Amino acid sequence: MDFQFTEEHLMIQKAARDFAVNELLPGVIERDEHQKFPAEQIKKLGELGFLGMMVSPKYGGAGLDTISYVLAMEEISKVDASASVVMSVNNSLVCWGLETFGTEEQKQKYLVPLASGQIIGAFMLSEPEAGSDATSQRTIAEDKGDHYLVNGTKNWITNGGSASVYLVMAQTHPEKGSKGINALIIEKDTPGITIGPKENKLGIRGSDTHSVMFQDVKVPKENRIGEDGFGFKFAMKTLAGGRIGIASQALGIASGAFELALKYSKERKAFGKEISQHQAIQFKLADMATKIEAARLLCLKAAWEKDQHLDYTLSGSMAKVFASETAMWVATEAVQVHGGYGYVKEYHVERLMRDAKITQIYEGTSEIQRIVISRSILS
Ligand code: CAA
Ligand code: FAD
User: Fold this and answer.
1) How far does the centroid of ligand 2 lie from the alpha carbon of residue 237, in Å?
2) Residue 183 and residue 186: Cα distance in Å, rounded?
3) Per-residue pLDDT tens for 85-105?
4) Which top-rank group of organisms is this from (predicted)?
């Protein structure tokens, strides 16, 4: 048991913190207000190696461990959760899925540019009628011998407008249920793809979320990931790690809101003293700090298990449900600590509160995490 970070971990954490403060903080309020995708900042994140953090240097990645990834996700999310969701999807859904299950040709062609941030990717499982109930895929990938013909609609796709490469789950053998689903690599420019309008969201408004329609889209057989019918397992295994990324995003939102509340409580005076001298505020800060520390330890434990090649499905779901509920609670309390000032944009906490909500919904809602956890502890 060792609670000490390495020099390298601390260096990555500092690099992410510096990037967040210097490159993301200026303009974060405007990007949120105008739903502007942080294109320039994402490009720089890629150049610094933050979009392929855990990918082997052989494929253009930074070759770091999952602990480093958690630390970096926390720092970026403290400031801009719209940027960190792009980072999370590219690292833990797209790059990890390709590196772990892709063929050498797929890795050379797609993983190399994705890991170095030259392009970004999207992960497409959800549909208008298949969100939590993810096995009910309506998108069809009809087997045509040397290619698949894809028809259907994917919903709520993060990076839907800006990604160049999509990992798409689609049903090939409906009679086989979840065992009939395939995971396909589809290039954005393939004829037959239509991207819907950008969703107008409550939070993470800088990220671009779109529906994506496929009409007779021809996908070569060599773009299938894994064996025929491996697609649902691919999605579940990939999401198990993705949930560590979103848990770390939630952790960052919580710790960002806490840092702002702590600072403000020492500046604002009421009834002749700093509000931090009132016990009601002190107890809020104490509860915030305690929940954040517990969330951080759950994230790091799941990351450590992943790095040790242990099964991290349970710890990842525990980290996600706890960290996301912590983020929502802490951010709401941070608004309260700020009083009326917390309700306006300049003080940042109202945005963090809006951003926190999504962490309880995507990559499996809190209810779905509890299903995964209860199935595991009851089995
Ligand atoms: N690893 C490997 N295989 C797994 C698995 C895992 N973690 N979880 C399930 N499976 C396998 C099962 O073993 C089963 O295979 P067998 O039949 O061979 O045993 C198969 O998958 C079907 O599993 P279930 O019978 O458990 O399926 P279910 O219908 O009960 O659903 C579920 C399980 C956990 C609820 C799943 O549907 C789920 O996770 N739903 C949530 C979907 C989700 O998280 N979507 C996120 C979309 S991406 C996103 O959101 C990105 C973003 O925002 C940024
Ligand atoms: P539903 O599944 O319809 O759920 C509605 C409610 O019912 C929820 O509270 C849910 O927890 C509850 N519920 C459902 N089933 C059960 C059950 N068995 N027991 C108890 N409660 C249950 N998806 C992608 O594939 N790729 C992406 O990049 C992506 N990005 C997203 C970005 C944003 C901003 C958003 C909003 C969503 C994104 N999603 C993405 C989709 C996201 O994963 C789904 O919204 C989520 O999985 C929930 O599915 P749903 O919206 O269909 O809700």
Assistant:
1) 17
2) 10
3) 999 999 999 999 999 999 999
4) Bacteria
Check residue 350 and give its pLDDT.
98
Query: Within 13 Å of residue 293, how many CA atoms lie on the same side as its CB?
Result: 7
122-231 maps to CATH 2.40.110.10: yes
Ligand 2 probe mutation, 87, 129, 132, 136, most atoms within 8 A of CB: 132
User: In this structure, what token pair is assigned to residue 110?
Assistant: 């797609």
* Structural tokens at position 231: 């697609």
pLDDT on residue 250 = 99
- Low-confidence residues of the chain, pLDDT below 50? none
Q: Distance (Å, rounded) from C-alpha 41 to C-alpha 21?
A: 12
Q: Which ligand is nearest to the CA of 183?
A: 2
pTM (2 decimals)?
A: 0.98
**Atom of ligand 2 minimally distant from the CA of 201:** 34
User: Residue 1: what pLDDT?
Assistant: 80
User: Is 70 in contact with 250 (CB distance < 8 Å)?
Assistant: no
Cα 263 off chain centre by? 28
**Residue 106, Cβ neighbours under 10 Å: how many?**
17
> Which residues of the chain are in CATH 1.10.540.10 domains?
7-120
Longest Cα–Cα distance in the chain: 78
CATH number listed for the domain at residues 238-378? 1.20.140.10
CATH topology of domain 7-120: Butyryl-Coa Dehydrogenase, subunit A; domain 1 (1.10.540)
